[in-house]
Write a structure and sequence with these properties.
single chain, mainly alpha
Length: about 55
């Protein structure tokens, strides 16, 4: 019979392990979202700014 101690394999048991993982996930997710936003924009920034602030 094989016995296994699962607590030793759990990274969250290390001090701060959960928070480091959460912070890394938020950072990576934020960067991926920003990159997607830039790549999938419907028009250039110049056109968007001109549309948002009409010239006098």
């Amino acid at each position: 019979m094989i016995s296994h101690n699962y607590e030793q394999d759990n990274d969250a048991s290390e001090p701060g392990g959960f928070w480091v993982g959460l912070l890394a996930g938020l950072l990576i997710g934020g960067l991926a979202g920003a990159l997607a936003l830039l790549l999938l924009a419907p028009q250039s920034g110049k056109k968007t700014r001109a549309k948002a602030v009409p010239e006098k």
